[in-house]
Amino acid sequence: MISKLKNEILREVGMLGRCIQSISDIKFREIQLQRGQFTFVTRICENPGIHLVELSDLLKVDKATTTKAIQKLIEEGYVLKERSKQDKRMWHLFPSAKAQQHYPYIIKEENWNIDSCCKGLSYEEKVLVYQLLKRMRENIEQDWEYIKESKKRKVK
Predict the structure, then answer these.
(1) Cβ atoms within 10 Å of 24's Cβ, excluding its own
(2) What top-level class would CATH report for the domain 26-106?
């Protein structure tokens, strides 16, 4: 017997995300940013000195994905890495001059995507969409934390 999907919300969210990702990948190619790297650049610009685990948690990606993305961004000259003075095992991430130079362009394009997605929505509808999506993220975040921790326990 085939199960029936309860609703199409997550499929719509996924399609929305993939459309935005595709548009961004094309636009940011000209500034040597590859698939999804702009999200790492923006969060580092907005949180200078953030460390890898904090960045992974902020973006809801695993540490391996973050490590790989950061290494490429260092090679492209977008990110600077400094060892923590308090904990020599930890590295802090900072935006380079190149990242700071391109940050306004990235945000401008992100705002264009927001405006495009929200075309025809009233202010109240935009607020409601934000509130509902945030609540959905907070709900699933609990499962994400649990799964992430149980995976760590299995590896040990």
Answers:
(1) 21
(2) mainly alpha
